[in-house]
Write the structure tokens for this entry.
Amino acid sequence: MPHLSVNPSSKPNCSTVWLISVLLGLLAVHTNANDVLTVPQQVSLSTNMDSQQLSISWLAGAATTFDLMILRTELNENVFYETVSVMVSQLSGRHEWNWTSVEPLQCTSLSIKIRSREGQSTSEWSNTEILQGSDLPSEEECQVFPLDRVVPVGANTTFCCIVKEGNQFGSINYGKTVMNTTRLSRRSYATTVVNQGLSGSSGTNVVCYNNFKGTENGVVVFVGYPPLPSDFVCETHDLTSADIYFELVTEPKKECRVDHWEGNWTLVVVNPLGQYSLTDSAELSHRVTPVAPENLTSVAHATNATVLWQWKYDGYSSLALVCQVELTSQGYKTNHTFSGVGLRAVVLPDLYPYEDYSVQVRCGAQQNFWKWGSWSETMSFKTSSIVPEAPDMWVWMNKDYTGQVIWKPLTRRQSRGLMTGYEVTLWSPEESLQHTEILPPDTFAVPVNLTQMATASSDNMVMATAVYTDSGFFLFWQSDVNTTCAYVVEWHNASCKWNCPVDWIKVAPGNTNVSIESANFQPGVRYDFSLYSSSSEAPELLQRWQGYMQELANLSDPGSRSYTVKSLSEGSYKFTVKAYTSAGEDTGATASIMLEPFTDWLILEILASLGVTALFLVIVTFLCYKKRKWVKKAFYPDIPEPKLPGDWSRSQAPLDVKPPHHSLVHMVERPEWDSSKEALVVIPEEDEDEDGQGIGDELVDTDEPTSLRYYNQVVDERPIRPRYPDSSDSSASSLDSARTDVTYTGIQTSGSSFVFQLDPQGSSEGHQPQADPSSVQEEGEVTGPRCNLESLVMTRAQRHPILFQSPRLLVATNPRAPGKWTPRWTMGKVAAVHPLLVPPPQLLPLSSSSLMERIIQRRNDSPHHQQQHG
Amino acid sequence: MADLEQREQSPALDSPPPGPTQTGRAVSIARLLHHECGLLLQLYKEKESFLSSYSPDGGRMVSPSPVPQEEASGEQRVERLHAALRQCLGLLHSVLLKEEDEWGEQEEDYETLKKNVRHRLEHLLLSTRGLLEGPDTTLEVTPDHQGTEEPDGAGGLFGLKVWTYRVLLELHHWADHAAETLHVFHTERGGAAVL
């Protein structure tokens, strides 16, 4: 390792001279450098108060690196001190550098000085330039800065308060919040508000208070959002001009008009925080929203009406239109659609005569339908009247062939106009004499005397019973297949014998039953029902019924205290007794009884049957005992014992049969099976797939020969237990061993016992709940079709609350739906109402505006929407 | 104001001096105006909470031509009141316009109350004119902007809020003064006490 050493024996004078030379050289270089670094001259300041930017320029020759120092003049506090690289501006020949202050530049005076630097060498400081603040003693009043600033939500802004000369500073409030402050000078105090929230409609007050809590002064700051227009769309109503619509947040829908259809539009909405542009383009024919039809008129007839209207613009005469006509009558609305070129009249068919209608019309373009136009004004009309429908009439005949012609009042629609009267004509087919009578419109019956014409109706016809059901009296009759006439069912109070108030109903041909329901039916009143054939000939009585809606016994003797009802069949009955006076009836008292069969006779019949049976058995036993030898010979003859060569031991063990390897064994139930013979059917393996459907895989272990144990006349009643392949219990089951034991018990249909093996999944679902109830709930949540979403969520919520909450948060906090994020829209209101925030929207043709060109150049890839924040 | 003029016809030139009914009605209107001005002032202070600690300096914003009170007749006092109310109406109109320019439509209850006060003040002006007009006098009921203090804009929006507050204070003061002056005038005319 080299080291320095002083050797007295060497040449000391040379070394000293060399060292001195080096030092002198360094000194010369340093002296020369000071000569090169120019002290900045003519330092100049300019300000932009809104942006709080200080522009500093100076002359410093060729130097490119400078030290800049900015101090608060009064307190001599360092605000900025950095070395910066600044080139000479080619335009002005000066060095120029910009600095943005955190505080408004008016808050306090700033001192600025600069020196050149080259490496470690620096020039002298320039003369100090002072930017005068508003806290000079000459400005005595309290001031707050910045004045009326507009900033976006989330911005940070520093405010300062210069207290009134002579007053003491108290605090700065942002809204209602007392802020922490920093002293900038004798009278100036600053505070920084971070992450500013949305302002109210009149901005947020920043207020400076003195030490006596008195308001000194303040400013208003607006915190908002850039504009966000939406629903920008252009359409035409007059087929010439463009009506343009857009929305600004919570503002009402705005619209403006351009005289000519440009085809392309761009809406630029600007406020101090930015601008937003929306474009729309379409052919005129694709954006036609017709105006409302005008001057509706009508030409109404009895069953149809022509509705006519006019169009405001001539261009509609060649426009293919589709129009909706909304027709209102009696509170019901129906829509009819018509189409045609220049449509201005439609015919409304199928109207009711003498009916009030109101109508309104709207239309859309038939080709390239855009949207329906506005509804026209409502126009009313009334259809004219025509002859009424034929009344539904009937004739009531008394025993003496007098009677009355009766008919039902016509409804308003049946009358087809204002009823003026009825005309009743009476004639006999045999005679040409007619008798006609004109009756006022409120007449619905007229007496007749048919003694000369009538044919007696059959009073001998058997009366059937009409049964009253929930849907009325149900009447049924036999129909003659050759008869196609309609029917009339007439009914009236059976007690009435003279000019009865009869009611009737017409039944269409082919029907053989009808339910008669009427609000006039009364309990305890017997009604007669008559079925007539209805044809061009005189009605013919076909059948008659009598019936009660509710049968009541009528005790005419006020002293009666009992009433006997005879011939009742078995069943339950309710009896209600009501007292009548001249004023009416009371609510009645009800008693219920049950008629049951006579039970003593039944017991006697059973005992007699048992006695006869016992007697028969005793006789048979006695006879068998007497003839027992004959019986034994006839039914149980002795069987000779077989004689075999050799030593054949007799065994009681069952006969084991081993089918061939890989054979499948099925027991088949045969209908023709004889109970005295057992059957084993061996099915070849190749047949299995056709009808076994894999049963063999579960039934038989084909690796081992299956042993069929055959018991003659022995029935094993034990149930075959399900097989669980993994169950420890399975070893105890004869079915679970590799050697499958099938116990044949005659016609034993053991298929049901194998259900668990046929459907292993089903078996696990069916049995696991018994072992572990909680696990089946888990399964049910995931796969069970009966599990609904609510139970799924709640169960998971109980086990894993976070899983429940997460989706809720995701749904509730989706802010990306444009226009649906409340804060932004609320902001927009502020932006929209403040003239500083929202200059009038500019609607610019794409081709003509230089601003538009600049916007297009700045547009991103999105062809329709672009947001540009200032 | 043209519509206002039409709404209430001027009394006929040869009509008799106002009776207790007219003066009593004017007192009622003035009291109602005073009540509504108080509500409006309260609402504005709630809206701009910094005003609770703000003490306006300076004198009255409304300064009708001085008439020595002790020497003035009842008609003169009412006439002076009428002039002050016209200035108040001028200030209120300025508030409405400037607020509309700066803030647009504000909270509904505040906007409604402002309009109510304006209509009430216009009604009171018509009533006081009806009390004074005779064959030789014709009084205006239009807003008077002469001599009233307007914000210079240097104070910014905060200055506008302070000025608005001062206007509302002034309205409250003159409504109170109107109720008092008209009540005295009413009693001088022999009217009964107005509840």
